[in-house]
Write a structure and sequence with these properties.
Strand content: 5-15%
Shape: globular
Number of domains: 1
Distance between the termini: 39 Å
Order of helices and strands: EEHHHH
Strand order of the largest sheet: 1-2
Oligomer: single chain
Radius of gyration: 15 Å
Helix content: 55-70%
Low-confidence stretches: none
């Protein structure tokens, strides 16, 4: 059972399936599929894969989880939704990198 994840900053936090469901739902909505039930079903598939692949000793990171979300979307032939999710993920990566450049000490003025 997955109970913790490793955040990008290295902190270990509680696993929250709702965050995965909500991220999938946002990608579905971005592609005109306003279906929270589908998001819940897909996040359940993500959870099953994570539980097979990871353990309490081998904790998944945020990027690992996002990779599984992409995989599940593609396996379910939700290509446009997967594309929206991938683009969203890339844009946020670029924003994180820009923040590092503008605030290398992490002061957050």
């Amino acid at each position: 059972m997955i109970s913790r994840i490793v955040k990008r900053d290295g902190k270990i936090v509680d696993f929250n399936l709702k965050k995965i469901t909500d991220a999938i739902y946002k990608a579905l909505k971005a592609t005109n599929r306003d279906d929270y039930g589908m998001a819940k079903r897909l996040s359940g598939e993500v959870l099953l894969i994570l539980e097979r692949k990871y353990s309490e000793e081998n904790i998944p990171g945020v990027e690992d989880i996002q990779d599984v979300v992409e995989y599940v979307l593609l396996e379910n032939k939700l290509y446009e939704t997967a594309k929206a999710y991938i683009i969203y993920r890339q844009k946020h990566k670029e924003l994180r990198e820009l923040r590092k450049l503008l605030d290398p000490a992490g002061i957050g003025w």
